[in-house]
Amino acid sequence: MASQRLILASASPRRLQLLREAGWDVETSVSGVDEVEDATFSPPGLALENARLKWRAVAPLHPGETVLAADTVVWLEGRFFGKPTDRLDAVRMLLALAGRTHCVVTGVLLGRFGGEVVEFAETSWVTFHALGLREIDAYLDSIDPLDKAGGYAAQDDSGRLIAHIEGLVSNVVGLPVERLAGFSSPRP
Hints:
With 188 residues, the chain is of the alpha/beta class. The chain contains five helices and seven strands; from the N terminus they run E-H-E-H-E-E-H-E-E-H-E-H.
């Protein structure tokens, strides 16, 4: 599925940065779809459903081009942690995740409208340090949690929240770029 350019169906600056750092020629096209937040889905099922919605909204606008859509979900013991609605919601999320291991799943769709589309879900496990309100407030003062599932940014963590990641770090950031290598080629 070689392509000169990749259309990223996302407004995520983290996904764009990951793809560009991996050598991809990327253009963004934001889907504008409302993401599903349904706890009856499994974590991979929810991530893939949202990625499908984004892909279906963007791919027809770019015929003949390879479109990549992704969605990342944070999950712990039957509860999804989406993007916080405000700072207090982010505090609640981080307190619930503190001192525990949670699942981060990114669903990915890659392909051309009317052609072959590949989809997969990548799972990583993230363990947080035990945290108090002081550490969480200091952390939230340093990032904008409102556009991040779970209210945190692995790429900006520097060990403040995250004690250990099992799996791809890029997946926790928002896109498992290592998994894309076999599907299309970055620019030379």
